[in-house]
Amino acid sequence: MIDSLSVVIPAWNEAQNIGRVVSDCVATAARVAARFEVIVVDDGSDDGTGEIIDGLAAADRRVVALHHERNRGIAAATRTGFAAACQEYVFYVDGDGQFDVREIDLLLPFCREFDLVVGRRASRADPWQRRWNARLYNGLLRRLFGLHVHDVNCAFKLLRREVLARLDCRSTSAFYLAELVIRAQRAGFRIREVEVHHYPRRFGSPSGARPGVALKALCSLLSFWLRRGAAR
Fewer CB atoms inside 10 Å of the end CB: C or N, the chain? Predict the structure, then answer.
């Protein structure tokens, strides 16, 4: 058991998933941490997600509901959640229900030896196009930045809050998680990758599948790489 844990869950139009995800996170956090909070960031949803998390927060003071007035994207939602986290460790997981949050047990044995413990989907339960795009994306990250992590966008990460305070991540796109890991590796933080299970989405549509989201992330990646080269 760890002393304290902040669970951060970004969510956009996850009305059919978010109740179960938050419930699972509360039960799991209560088991593994002496103190905890579950922070849910509604990123401008229009399907009732915001009202659902407000109800969950009203019923359990350990649940914190935060809202964006409009959809600002995964980077902004994640940044809002991270900024609100107050506990020693931060656990990041998506609100789509494609992970079993109880598998935090696979990450916890490494949390004291490593600064970031990041999940790697053993078998990604997504359409082949998304799996192929992810393979190309991760390969490009390893080639351009010497990144040791193989599944940088896996939304199952456990890290020390002090690490977040020392990483100045500026991306406003889905490249945010990659930038986080790249900066952590370059800063000398210890990173461990652990295989976790990934399950098919039961309800809703993945926002990361939209072409505009992927294109913006790729542009952010190239911009970051060019700035890094110019700084040498």
Answer: C
- Residue 201: phi and psi, rounded to 5, are -70, 130
232 pLDDT band (50/70/90 cuts)? Answer: very low
Q: What tokens does 221 get?
A: 């990646």
Residue type, 213: V
Please give the Cα distance from 193 to 67 (Å, whole number): 31
The CATH-assigned architecture of domain 2-230 is Alpha-Beta Complex (3.90)
Residue 112 scores a pLDDT above 80: yes
CB atoms within 10 A of CB 92: 24
Query: What are the tokens at 122?
Result: 């053993």
pLDDT tens-digit readout, 28-48: 999 999 999 999 999 999 999
Best-predicted range by mean pLDDT (52-66, 116-130, 157-171, 197-211): 52-66
Can you name the residues that pair with 86 across neighbouring β-strands?
none
Q: Which sequence spans correspond to the domains of the chain?
A: 2-230
